[in-house]
Amino acid sequence: MAQTRFAPDRGLTSRMVTTMFLIGLLYVVVVGVLVVLLKGAWVVVLVIAGALFVAQFWFSDRIAAFSMGAREVTPEQAPELHGAVDRLCALADMPKPRVAIAESDVPNAFATGRGQKNSLVCATTGLLRRLEPAELEGVLAHELSHVAHRDVAVMTIASFLGVLAGIITRAALWSGIGRDSRDQNTAIAVLIVTAVSAVIYTLSFLLTRLLSRYRELAADRAAALLTGRPSALAAALTKVTGQMARIPTEDLRKAQPFNAFYFAPAFNKESFSRLLSSHPTLEQRLEQLARISTELGRA
Fold it and tell me: Which residues cross the membrane (predicted)?
């Protein structure tokens, strides 16, 4: 990664390399299977695969930001948010990302981007209303560490393929395309594409989970060490997680598809999403921050 004052993490780096390798391997296997099964349309398969690869690399961050309602703001529109980002970027010795706000009462934050120069950090209006300045800086430092370590780019790219496959699968299942088709070859092709999309979605989901939980712990640690205030980040985590139970279920459901990007997962206590959560538990995160606080106290 580019040199910053965020603490490096070899475990995170190895997981990112493994995830990208497996995503690339998944691409090769899927394209190969489609070329073999759809022999007469192999040129179309290769063209579509190439277009998706380009779109995944160049536009996945913009698509993710748009999907989560991020609206870029100027220093005049959000002086406190920009001020916090300015201070942290100076402290971390890294380029300042674009700053955005999402109109949502769900208290959260996220970062997207292929690299430090084209990254974006976003906070929701619900988060800005609820956190104290020190707590907000802890959350923003967490998100900036994702940018500095480049794991946000890996997550954005890795998630794109799964999201696309999920959309194709749901569209085929809901519409029933191919069921009543008189052209048997068309029906078979549709079923093949649907089945392959379902497999891709499952594998992509598992690959992103391989990275996601660890990267959140790495970002917590890097943010705590950079700011020197793990207690502020712990307070923000406790406050944000506690407030989730007060958010309307409909708003939580809208946010849940993007949990892998968020500072804290959006779900209520009754949700089964905890079983396949993109984040470590609150207890694990708080225990790590308590250890860091003890280490800093001894130092």
Answer: 12-35, 41-59, 152-174, 186-207
Q: Is 132 labeled as catalytic in the residue annotation?
A: no
CA distance 225 to 292: 8
Higher pLDDT, 77 or 44: 77
Predicted TM-score (pTM) of this structure: 0.81
3-state SS class at 71: strand
Three-class SS of residue 99? strand
Catalytic residue among 80, 143, 283, 295: 143
Structural domains present in the chain = 72-167+194-297 (3.30.2010.10)
Q: Is residue 194 within 8 Å of residue 173, measured between CB atoms?
A: yes
283 annotated as a binding-site residue: no
Q: Annotation-wise, does 76 bind a ligand?
A: no
pLDDT digits (tens, 9 = 90+) for 241-270: 988 888 888 888 888 777 878 898 886 554
Structure tokens at 69: 């309602």
Contact in structure between 101 and 123 (CB atoms under 8 Å)? yes
